[in-house]
Amino acid sequence: MAWLNRYADAIYCIVRLTIGLMFACHGGQKIFGFPPSERGLATNPTGLTVGWIELSCGFLIGFGLLTRLAAFIASGEMVSHTS
Amino acid sequence: MNSLNRFTDPAYCLMRLIFGLNFASHGGQLLFGMFGGMPGSNSPLLQLCGWICLVGGFLIAFGLLTRLAAFVSSGTMAVAYFMVHAPHNFFPIANQGERAVFYSWVFLFIFFYGPGRWSIDAMIGKGKAAPPASAT
């Protein structure tokens, strides 16, 4: 089964892309109202900070730019996630 | 930052453990109505899904038959996404299917990456081939 490892890099890239973009969607909902959500835009400072972190880190992780930094910040944000 | 790569194996083991156990608890919820939040189900399809979640989740968590379990679980989640969630809305975030997408892709990655060095498979020699040093 070890021959599968040859494709691990490609799959890792797709996983990063999918998860990063889904994460960015959460930020998009809070900041721009896209994708549409019934919860509406974020108005308080916490919501805005969280939204911008999700939006920017999501795209950075998705495309693999400054990945470790973005992943560390996003991970910490999810741990302290309250709303 | 490459010094962080030395922690890849324990971090990967932890990730497998957390994803596997979380996945198994969906099985517990579907089959036995555990954890509240949702009653168990008698529909044969959901029963099947529940058993796959429960058994696959534990196998992935402890790294036993990891690739097989991850492949089956990944396929189950993909089917679940397109059968249950996709018809409602285009965006995973709006059709409640985000977790299905998440599990499906992460398990597909586990299928390709293998059990890793910190796993039962590696202990009993099934994961003979060492995984790539890092997936970067």
Work out the radius of gyration of chain B: 16 Å
Q: Mean of residue pLDDT of chain A?
A: 92
Number of H/I helices of chain B: 5
Helix content bin of chain A: 55-70%
- Provide mean pLDDT of chain B, rounded: 88
Succession of helices and strands of chain B: HHHHH
Oligomer: heterodimer
Summarize the structure.
Chain A is mainly α. Chain A has helices at 8-31, 45-63, 67-79.
Looking at this protein, list some descriptive labels.
heterodimer, A: 83 residues, mainly alpha, 3 helices, B: 136 residues
Question: Would you mind describing this structure in some detail?
Answer:
The complex is a heterodimer of chains A (83) and B (136). Chain A has helices spanning 8-31, 45-63, 67-79. Chain A is built from three helices and no strands. By secondary structure, chain B is an all-alpha fold. Chain B has one domain (8-120). Chain B is built from five helices and no strands. Chain B has helices spanning 8-32, 44-62, 66-85, 98-113, 120-123. In chain B, helix 2 (44-62) packs antiparallel against helix 3. The longest helix of chain B is centred in the first third of the chain and has 25 residues, at 8-32. The chains are: A mainly alpha (83), B mainly alpha (136). The A-B interface holds A 1-2, 4-5, 7-9, 11-12, 14-15, 18-19, 22, 25-26, 29, 35-37, 68 and B 1, 4, 67, 91-94, 98, 101-102, 105-106, 108-109, 111-114, 128-129, 131-132, 135-136.
